[in-house]
Amino acid sequence: MELLRQLEQGLKDIDAQGLRRRRRTADTACAAHMTVDGRPIVGFASNDYLGLAAHPQLIDALAEGARRYGAGSGGSHLLGGHSRAHAQLEDDLAAFAGGFVDAPRALYFSTGYMANLATLTALAGRGATLFSDALNHASLIDGARLSRADVKIYPHGDVDALSALLDASDAETKVIVSDTVFSMDGDVAPLARLLALAEQHGAWLVLDDAHGFGVLGPLGRGAIAEAALRSPHLVMVGTLGKAAGVSGAFVVAHDTVIEWLVQRARPYIFTTASTPASAFAVSASLRIIGGEEGDARRAHLRELIARTRTLLKRTPWQPVDSHTAVQPLIIGSNEATLALAAELDHAGLWVPAIRPPTVPVGTSRLRVSLSAAHSHEDLDRLEAALSRAADASAAQEAA
Question: Is 300 a catalytic residue?
């Protein structure tokens, strides 16, 4: 069949470029130490930054939520699927993360991807202009495209370039959108300067705090709280399958913004609500994140981050200057990156290789994702394996 032949050729082209993606199957719960494809391994691949995904209290809360509300929601939020667990979680999220705005309100989504599509398509449309950081996550890029707004892309973190684009725009509605912590580099956007521009130009500032929520700021309230920002121009998106350890996502903003999303955000209106048990478990997670245990986990994570920054600098490869749990190590070519990932895998370490189009050509990298569940002994193993790989690479070059 010609259609299948075209796809097969396309897959061969992907293989030739070293870009084939392959799934691995976890046989145990997401944790620092797990069994993957039948082998014990130390995982540096997940976004479980606080090590809560297998926390006994969250497991119990998920089970209790299922006992109370059943296995599924049964419908969309506007057609019978909005449970008391969903409503309570939205109140909890608004109280926990909404300190940056008066009259905060939260809206719960099944995934972060949906939350970003919903927010950008509802706030921007034909006639609007959306200003997007060049390294924004794919969900923000797709949300911008689907919004049908005019999209202006500014160089990564370049506030001066963004200012020039805003000065040149006569759009009635302007939306600036950026990740807070960039998932492949681990750096943090210049949030205060972005907000200053948003207020100067009467623009919305949509910030995706997927990799900051739960980790950064007082009590883990996120990057916006860490930067001590406060403005009605701010719209915060956060995910709940990373540091929070469960699933789903949310948007927090002024009550009027959230009511507009309820009325106009198609990814919210036209999808079945997530299982109420997940919402019930997230509420339990927020209590851990904002309590003494959350503080202790963040303190341990900061220790691991500092040590990892040091050990990556000792390698012959190029670390990225990140102070977050995302610690990239740029290798260069796809082939060399895959080879190093395979060596680490042989040593019982799962450190994923990140390749184009996720990152620019020539900057393929290993992405070390740290979790509060990791120990210093885990970093000992990582450091030793990287050292052996570096020695082997140097010997091969010398030969």
Answer: no
